[in-house]
């Protein structure tokens, strides 16, 4: 993906000029929305929801050969629950290699998932990540920006009341806009072009 105004040789997060750094906030979430990786999760519990999204990660050709996303996600979830509160879960796989792009698949549960999050709230959104070594800090900044956007927008309630994926998609785009410090339909139009 091209970032307007960003020279070819300056794509690394460390050398990006400050004026362009904000454009990289929540980039993998925006890419997931743009590339059709927002899904309604099956109403069959946490394990089934995680398996569903892990299959999306498995389909990513950038993931190392031999990686079993379902197994990795289940193992990590046993080590530590990835429900961060606020109705959100962020399960992830840390890549064995350094190079590669942060990759995200998003699941929405209309009824909410009993996820075991510390705050006890059902999870409505699951952001599943594949994290190459060089992208660890980008991932942490993305999650931090996501949490801030949720808190400043009034919480997960609009997502909990959503009636379909299109409504969820638009609410997520609002969160990305908010993280970028922009608002209104013009900001959304600049961020994403819907393909018909």
Report the helical percentage.
40-55%
The gross shape turns out to be globular
Rounded to the nearest angstrom, the distance between the terminal CA atoms is: 19 Å
- The whole-number mean of residue pLDDT values reads 82
In the predicted model, the low-confidence regions spanning at least 5 consecutive residues are 1-22, 192-196
Strand content: 15-25%
Structural class: alpha/beta
Please count the helical segments. 8
Radius of gyration, in Å, reads: 16 Å
- What summary fits the major beta sheet? 6 strands, mixed
Order of helices and strands: HHEHHEEEEEHHHH
Report the count of strand segments. Answer: 6
Tell me what you see in this structure.
- With 196 residues, the chain is of the alpha/beta class.
- Helix content is 41%, strand content 16%.
- It is built from 8 helices and 6 strands; from the N terminus they run ααβααβββββαααα.
- It has helices at residues 18-21, 27-34, 46-58, 69-79, 136-152, 157-160, 165-180, 185-191; strands spanning 38-40, 83-85, 88-89, 92-94, 103-113, 123-131.
- Strands 1, 2, 3, 4, 5 and 6 form a 6-stranded mixed sheet that branches.
- β2 and β3 (88-89) form a beta hairpin.
- α3 (46-58) packs across α4 (69-79) and α5 packs across α7.
- The radius of gyration is 16 Å and the shape is globular.
- Mean pLDDT is 82; it is low at 1-22 and 192-196.
């Amino acid at each position: 993906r091209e970032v307007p105004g960003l020279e070819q040789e300056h794509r690394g997060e460390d050398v990006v000029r400050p004026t362009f750094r904000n454009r990289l906030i929540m980039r993998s979430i925006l890419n997931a929305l743009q590339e059709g990786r927002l899904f309604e999760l099956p109403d069959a519990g946490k394990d089934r929801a995680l398996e569903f999204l892990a299959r999306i990660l498995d389909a990513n050709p950038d993931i190392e050969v031999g990686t079993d996303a379902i197994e990795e996600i289940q193992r990590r979830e046993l080590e530590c629950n990835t429900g961060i509160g606020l109705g959100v879960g962020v399960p992830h796989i840390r890549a064995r290699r350094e190079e590669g792009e942060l990759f995200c698949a998003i699941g929405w549960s209309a009824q909410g998932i009993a996820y075991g999050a510390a705050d006890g709230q059902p999870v409505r959104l699951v952001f599943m990540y594949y994290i190459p070594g060089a992208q660890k800090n980008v991932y942490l900044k993305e999650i931090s920006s996501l949490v801030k956007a949720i808190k400043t927008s009034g919480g997960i309630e609009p997502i909990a009341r959503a009636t379909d994926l299109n409504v969820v998609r638009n609410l997520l785009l609002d969160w990305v806009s908010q993280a970028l410090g922009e608002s209104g339909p013009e900001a959304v139009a600049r961020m994403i072009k819907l393909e018909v």
